[in-house]
Amino acid sequence: MGNDDFATVINCMDGRTQIPVNEWVRAEIGATHVDTITEAGPNGILANRQEPLASTIRDRVMISVNDHGSKTIALVGHYDCAGNPGPKTHQKGDVLKGLETIRSWGLPVRLIGLLVGDDWSVEVVADSGSAPNRAKTGTGAVA
Ligand SMILES: [Zn+2]
Question: What is the CATH number of domain 2-131?
Answer without folding.
Answer: 3.40.1050.10
